[in-house]
# Entry
Amino acid sequence: MAFRNVMARFGAGGADVEAVLDSPDTTPGGSVTGTVHLAGGRVPQEIAEIRVALEATVEVESGDSSWQENAVFGTTVVAGASTIEPGEQRSARFSFPVPWQCPITSLDGWQLRGMRVGLRTRVDIPGAVDAGDLDPVTVHPLPVQRTVLQALDQLGFAFRGADVEKGRIAGSDLPFYQEVEFAPPGSLRGRVNELEVTFLADASGVEVVLEVDRRGGLLTEGRDVAGRLRLSHADTDVRAVAGRLDAAVRQLGARRGWL
# Structure
């Protein structure tokens, strides 16, 4: 029995946890709901708690090096301390609130390459090794975020890619932020490398952070210039938003004299 207890701590014959999501689809500010199923192993085990948390893959930069790591954001406790007996089956419902500034991973059914968000379920057993259970979650944009992306497309900006950077910018709530990158329209080529967009959403709307990567000239270096545009959740008129975005980008350009 002592050997079995030791092996259970390393995952052999120990309790098994699995989360079943009601739906893998959600939005920033929405929720993820489901049921956690716990199955007892070969020996009784003390459980400190069962918890779920969102997990995202983020890019980390340090000097000339960069790498990816998993970042956990937000945790909800599903069940507290108890003992799970051999072969015992348990279930517990959960509802996990998705942070407003959660990265989006999909647009109109198209998965954004490199974007990965999942729900990690863990059972905390003192002294045990628990890899947990990870379920992919698809985060769709809010209507106002989708409107911004459609407006940029209307203005001629072409989607180039997206990533999640470790760190904070003014107004961010999470220890990372998402950047959606666009190639400039023909009218700006030769003066702008790309436009990077970050959404800082909250209950009343979204602050759109615009960062222009300006091309350098013969005697000048390229520079990044940033600005912000505040939109409410009701701002879903693509044409109107396109006009505001165009004005904001041109204002950024005017600061550096390239428009």
Summary: The helical segments are 2-9, 143-154, 238-256.
